[in-house]
Design a protein that fits this description.
Layout (H helix, E strand, L loop, with lengths): L2 E5 L2 E4 L4 E8 L7 E7 L6 E6 L6 E3 L7 E6 L4 E6 L8 E8 L13 E2 L3 E6 L1
Parallel strand pairs: 2-11
Antiparallel strand pairs: 1-3, 3-8, 4-5, 4-9, 5-6, 7-8, 9-10, 9-11
Length: 124
């Protein structure tokens, strides 16, 4: 079992930045590829970004490329999502997830463990 706890969400204005963190516990963190997903009101949950077990490979959804950066510190069992130039359409609950597959995993069905989510609200 892997337990994931997200933090760092909040209410910001368009153009601001936020850094989300996801702390993992339970199993060897470095064995897991990690992903960030989000779910906006009335919409399905969607992929945002993923990072390989070593951190050497990353992949982003098109609308966040160049604005968001995923990273990880295996020594701290933590994955991050740095979000810059935030837009109102980035408003959503953001979830981190872990998978033993990889190194790059986009499909939600391939993730085994999920956090409870953190709310990000971007006002215009």
């Amino acid at each position: 079992q892997v337990q994931l706890v997200e933090s760092g969400g909040g209410l910001v204005q368009a153009g601001d930045s936020l850094r989300l963190s996801c702390a993992a516990s339970g199993r060897t963190f470095s064995n897991y590829a990690m992903g960030w997903f989000r779910q906006a009101p009335g919409k399905e949950r969607e992929f945002v970004a993923t990072i390989s077990q070593s951190g050497a490979s990353t992949y982003y959804e098109n609308s966040v490329k160049g604005r968001f950066t995923i990273s990880r510190e295996n020594a701290k069992n933590t994955v991050y999502l740095q979000m810059n130039s935030l837009k109102p359409e980035d408003t959503a609950v953001y979830y981190c997830a872990a998978t033993l597959t990889g190194p790059i995993v986009v499909r939600q069905a391939n993730y085994n463990y999920w956090g409870q989510g953190t709310q990000v609200t971007v006002s215009s």
